[in-house]
Amino acid sequence: MSDEIREALEKIFSADSDVYRQRGFQRRVGFGERPAQIHIDLANAWTRPGNPFTCDGMGTIIPGVQRLLAAGRAKGIPIVYTTTAYAVTDGPSPDMGLWHHKIPVEVLKLGTDAVAIDERIAPEPGEHVIVKKHASAFFGTNLASMLRAAGVDTVIVTGVTMAGCVRHTVEDAIGYGFRPIVVRECVGDRVAGVVEWNLFDIDAKFGDVEPLETVLDYLEGIEPFSASPALSAETTGAAAETGRG
Amino acid sequence: MSDEIREALEKIFSADSDVYRQRGFQRRVGFGERPAQIHIDLANAWTRPGNPFTCDGMGTIIPGVQRLLAAGRAKGIPIVYTTTAYAVTDGPSPDMGLWHHKIPVEVLKLGTDAVAIDERIAPEPGEHVIVKKHASAFFGTNLASMLRAAGVDTVIVTGVTMAGCVRHTVEDAIGYGFRPIVVRECVGDRVAGVVEWNLFDIDAKFGDVEPLETVLDYLEGIEPFSASPALSAETTGAAAETGRG
Amino acid sequence: MSDEIREALEKIFSADSDVYRQRGFQRRVGFGERPAQIHIDLANAWTRPGNPFTCDGMGTIIPGVQRLLAAGRAKGIPIVYTTTAYAVTDGPSPDMGLWHHKIPVEVLKLGTDAVAIDERIAPEPGEHVIVKKHASAFFGTNLASMLRAAGVDTVIVTGVTMAGCVRHTVEDAIGYGFRPIVVRECVGDRVAGVVEWNLFDIDAKFGDVEPLETVLDYLEGIEPFSASPALSAETTGAAAETGRG
Amino acid sequence: MSDEIREALEKIFSADSDVYRQRGFQRRVGFGERPAQIHIDLANAWTRPGNPFTCDGMGTIIPGVQRLLAAGRAKGIPIVYTTTAYAVTDGPSPDMGLWHHKIPVEVLKLGTDAVAIDERIAPEPGEHVIVKKHASAFFGTNLASMLRAAGVDTVIVTGVTMAGCVRHTVEDAIGYGFRPIVVRECVGDRVAGVVEWNLFDIDAKFGDVEPLETVLDYLEGIEPFSASPALSAETTGAAAETGRG
After folding, report:
1. If you classify domain A32-83+120-223 with CATH, what class do you get?
2. What is the pLDDT of residues B139-188, one digit of tens each?
3. Could you tell me the fold of the domain covering B31-223?
4. Is B165 among the residues known to form the active site?
5. Nearest by CB to B25, which of C103, C172, C197?
6. Fewest CB atoms within 10 A around its CB: which of A208, B70, C133, D180?
7. Cα D108 from Cα D114, distance rounded (Å)
8. What is the pTM for the complete model shown?
9. How far off is chain A from C243, nearest CA to CA, in Å?
């Protein structure tokens, strides 16, 4: 993006921020106490060259995600990756739904290397890889339920694309009752401008956009993640005398 | 229900429980630390005579719910009521969906006294009345999101009907990551047997069926409900320096 | 189930049906024009001996499903199988959510033979295998969206267990706006009585329970399934002149 | 928005479109055969001056929506309005979830004039007003289910705000399997630029942005909306012999 265009965007953002602040938007949702990480579509089709879905900025995004993974693993918080992949890409009932009528999702075949998570940030045992069919990590998946059962209250979001899957995920996250934190250096896209304006919209309305260092500091400060308090105090022994009609 | 039939059901439940226990079913999900109450369809169409939806057992259910409400209000836990009501009951796009092709939901008109919560257990300010269109209190409603945002981990369920809305609500509740507790004396239906066999199925697989006194004891023992810890520590002042690309 | 107990259940069902009919329940939702088949959890853990999840009745269920598959494939309708399987069964954020606190889902490991669809009714290319985490085939999955995109209006349901996944699926199906048809001979469970009473509840309120022969006749009579009319008339060429700001 | 800034945005959109087209994005999803209209948050808080939520452009949006309503009503298609409103705006379990931590939703009180649909485009009997709690018209509501039951395949979307509720609605719509059509002249917002860049993102990935005249022509050309074919052929008489165990 040229300096001239960046300057034009900054001018818009500044004027818009004035309106938002006068009206009480752009508040801070803040960090909670039990975070999870959600890394959106950092699979080879997006992180490596040569695919219609290839994104820019991996030189910054991948090292940033590596640092987040190290910090999150040190505290044992839930780590979730998503990829977007399809098992049935022709015939009258594809699992793409209608999305191939807008974008080339037919190239994202389930089980291929293209949709595997980039090995530079490979999942470890006990971490989650969710295969989604739509933009949001929550849409048509078990993610919200799983995080709720684990007592998660905050989701730290990275990945691609900012104008697609990351944005939809963040909009859903606050709807589902999780505090969304988007890591500024760790999100990307494939065309100019869309990272900037989508971060602007999100920070105004749906989640907090925070620098990587702030998020790393936060992760360093939290308690290690354990089974939620309620779940660690098992209610055994009561089985015999409970319940039925 | 005749003694003879009750005896036959008990015989089935006993044999089935043997199988379930050998195989590791009928475990206890137990109580968490931050409960909400969900009172299903205790509106006049179900609690008063003369409606196709009228249920039995209100002589026990209403006083039980009154005691639960008192105990829950003393601790400030979220209280949720549901009713089932429709704004558009004819034409090609009713908000009943397809359900009137199975049961007479067309009599449940939004805004009528029939679908108002029974005044003996009337909602107080700050409590929630959710108008649902389908059986489960969670289906097509904001309930799971609202409870998650409030940090709820347990749902105490009462109401009617056991074979319909209560059961579907409990199945969904554990799916969404909430511990379902069904209050045995506070659920009902309108035909014989179905309370018993649905409680049996639920206790085997989806939630714990507990006596009213156990639930009241539990409510007496919990901490008062407050904004979830994360939400009480507001992150103010950080607004100026965050976020945008 | 002994004759004596079956007789007791029939007596209850008969009395209950009298009440339901007087009140306008037990209506017929009927067959639509664009059906899909959903075969619930007919994977080896349920269809073969020796697993906590093993069910009865496969001598009838499997041949029935084979006939349905042949009839459905002849018309090209969407065929969906589900299995229930988990990638993370320990630690503080299992993808089982809370369900292992009720039933032994920890034995259902993703990628094992136990959770693969029974080879006697093996999926063919272009058919769908959905890995679900909860009881309903719709819960936390892309199923409703995929069927809607394909223009499906009716779901023909088989599988196990009747008191668990089949029932929850049917309750959800009518909620999502699909006509649920349960094939009487093709559903099963692992303890006595629960097939009967759950079919009774479903037929009263959520979907039609129909004999296999009726469903086979219906499938023989429908038009071959093709891309929905709207989707076959592609709107090409308009791209250049549409849309932006 | 100044000419200079508009020019800068157009320059970005043009460069980005080149990339998108080379890679197979910006396809047309097209119109289906059974549309519904969804008018997002055209209630007084958004359409009239003096509210934090007040939007610009009503001089164009309201007359455009009036024309769409006339055209849609002439064909009897489902008309859906949304508003965003809250019953419980303080205490530990507000129905705002966490959203008031980002934007001033606490001013949107259920039952006030502010959240009533603007009377210039007032709903008529048989039309739907959905009270939502989050950005998308589909999120935590019965909308997708109701439209599915009515056999709808296309959603024509108008309203505000483009950077919030309209965008999230469109992202969800294609996920749920409906073809989203956004009416270019009938969407708005309250700060500069965001209509343009959100329309750009949507048209690239989630739905078609079409001029009002194109949508009016389409509505004029469709068949009158009736109960879906399957639902008009009732399957009566079969009740006696069906179903139960």
Report:
1. alpha beta
2. 999 999 999 999 999 999 999 999 999 999 999 999 999 999 999 999 99
3. Rossmann fold (3.40.50)
4. yes
5. C103
6. B70
7. 7
8. 0.94
9. 13
